[in-house]
Amino acid sequence: MIVFGHRGAAGEAPENTLAGIKHAIAAGIKNIEVDLRLSADGQLFLLHDRSLGRTAGINKNIDALTSHELHATDARLSCKHWSNPAPCPIPTLTELLTQTPELECIQLEIKSDSSTNIVATVDALACELSNTTTASRVVVTSYDADILEALRQRASHIRLGLVANHDLLAAFNTASALNCAFMCLHYELILNCSEELIKTLTDCAMHISCWTVNSQEVALKLCQRNVDSIITDLPNKILPLFDPAT
Hints:
Layout: E1 2-6, H1 18-26, E2 31-38, E3 44-46, E4 51-52, H2 53-56, E5 58-61, H3 67-71, H4 93-99, E6 105-110, H5 118-128, H6 132-135, E7 138-142, H7 145-154, E8 160-164, H8 168-177, E9 182-186, H9 187-192, H10 195-203, E10 207-211, H11 216-224, E11 229-232, H12 235-238
Parallel strand pairs: 1-2, 1-11, 2-6, 6-7, 7-8, 8-9, 9-10, 10-11
Antiparallel strand pairs: 2-3, 4-5
Helix pairs in contact: 5-7
């Protein structure tokens, strides 16, 4: 079973920060999931919410802030028990890719809402991942099939993944039509679906990844259902189940 760190290691360290991702790596994680949004000047930054309020204490939206302003942030608020006093600025995708060469696979989830500029987002991704070696380390995921379709048309060498938390069969059909490499599913979809549908999923070519799994019991049940990976906030709790060396 492959274990991905959710937003780095969101239950143990500041989410979507280099400090948090390096914490996950130190725990033995070789694969992570992070979130991406565009800044006002069109740069891809690691951030889940549109607003910086929850993670950085700034009641502004990322699409109203420049790269310079985002580099001056401190996202330690996302992890109340994080004791390291060093600031944790919101990093760019470029910083993530260049400073974590040891990571084997990175799920890049594109967050979307009414503010999302699909064309600008897809253009930024296509530019960032134009190198096939760099692109081979990542899979770009989203709930938004329009974003995935636009990226498929713009940069067909980039692997895609559909994120879903309901209607598993419809999600499977959409992911198949988009030629996705991954399906990223809420774990309850797998625990509650029929054996027949489980067989359909596990027999297909797509990688089945389940989020967000913070219970050892649930992790083991998902392993029994033959999913390919799980995504966890708590790598120090979940990874030892599958990697005794950690």
